[in-house]
Amino acid sequence: MKTPDYRKAAWLTLILVLAFVAGWELYWRQQNHALSYDDDESLWASKRKLVYQSSPARPVLIGSSRIKFDLDLDTWKRLTGEKPIQLSVEGTSPRPMLTDLGNDPRFNGTVLIDVTEGLFFTPSGSFPEKGAITRVAAYPNWSLSQQISFQINRVLEANLLFLDQEKLTLNPFLNSLPIPSRPGVWGGPRFPHAFSVNLFDRQTKMTPAFVADTALQNRVKGIWAEIGAHSPKQGVDGPLLTGILNSVKQSVDRIRARGGKVLFIRTPSDGPLREAEKRMFPRALYWDRLLAYTRTPGIHFEDYPILNQYQCPEWSHLTPKDAIAFTEALLPVVQQKLESPINQRRPQRP
Question: With b meaning 16 or more CB within 10 Å and e meaning fewer, what string describes 307-340?
Fold first, then answer.
């Protein structure tokens, strides 16, 4: 009996697959989509491994989305020779990450903690901590096979747009369909694809299309208003707030006891969003009390004219251009607050 020869079928299948992949990639390139890395647990874990190299010139950054947009990592490196280690997660409280660093006996570096009050001052284990808790829990179990897979994906993601799992797969498309929510049901925010891209160092940037399009900016402003409508109308207080402050102080004290340094930063926001933040989280009751309770220095953008001159196009984050200038202005203040010399080079505009 003659054995069937499947070589032609195999070659035809390979050609069809390659043609489809090439066509799919070309299509997205023609749509002007920017290259972006999936900000998943593996990318976070690859940066978490670096925290033992931390120093005042190479701080660990924990927080929410604002410090991912507002502190430009390449600018910091241009000025100091070192790139910060970005561990912040969008829409997430940094407190689980602070606890993780506080509990790590090997960590004695420098931590810059970005404080977005509506996320920072939330009950332990609540939804705003989910993203941080997931990553912190996954890191110790980041297996060798996962690390190898991550390195392979890194090469592919650096060259192929269609591998963007956060924007160009089925689920993001389904979520972007203009389907109204059922009465009393909210499925969460739906940000436009052009809002931002995520780089391999976990820097997040607004896309040029978003910076140039006021309609997209207004859409995101509407999302902040929508989030506010589904959020608590006042900040935590009483024993709950005291418990949060105790937890933060414990972690900060542990880091400092090992020779590390901690600094809180309040990055810019403006417009109606900033006014709402002031009403819900009066500075004296939250920011000032946080610094006093933990005996930790802090930088609030409203205290420094050089940091308070930027406008957030959608009320909450800086453009890439302003992030560069903001980082240049912030670095000397960080050095002053840490009381540590940071090797600063003369600024050179690209």
Answer: beebebbbbbbbbbebbbbbbbbbbebbbebbee
Are the CB atoms for 85 and 47 separated by under 8 Å? yes
- Report whether 300 contacts 287 (CB < 8 A): yes
Helix (H) or strand (E) holding 317: none
Give the whole-angstrom CA distance, residue 313 versus residue 39: 23
Kindly calculate the radius of gyration of the chain based on its CA atoms and give it in whole angstroms: 22
Counting other chains too, the contacts that 118-122 makes at CB distance below 8 Å and 24 or more residues apart are 118/231, 118/235, 118/277, 118/280, 118/281, 119/64, 119/91, 119/92, 119/93, 119/94, 120/64, 120/93, 120/94, 120/95, 121/235, 121/236, 121/241, 121/244, 121/281, 121/286, 122/93, 122/236
What are the sequence ranges of the domains in the chain? 54-128+202-338
Supply the pTM of this predicted model: 0.86
Question: How much is the average pLDDT of 119-131?
Answer: 90
Could you give the angle at which helices 214-229 and 271-280 cross, rounded to 10 degrees?
A: 20
How much of the chain, in percent, has pLDDT values that exceed 90? Answer: 64
Architecture of domain 54-128+202-338: 3-Layer(aba) Sandwich (3.40)
Q: How far apart are the first and last CA of the chain?
A: 71
- Counted residue by residue, the chain has a size of 350
Q: What angle do CA 80, 84, 88 make, to 5 degrees?
A: 155
Pairing of strands 110-114, 204-206: unpaired
Compute the mean pLDDT over every residue in the chain, rounded to the nearest whole number.
86
C-beta of residue 161 within 8 angstroms of C-beta of residue 26: no
250-265 pLDDT per residue, tens: 999 999 999 999 999 9
The answer on pLDDT for 209 being more than 80 is: yes
Token code pair at residue 157: 């993601």
DSSP state of 51: G
Instruction: Report the pLDDT value the prediction gives residue 146, as an integer from 0 to 100.
Output: 82
What is the residue type of 134? Answer: T
Residue-level pLDDT at 349:
42
pLDDT at 142 over 50: yes
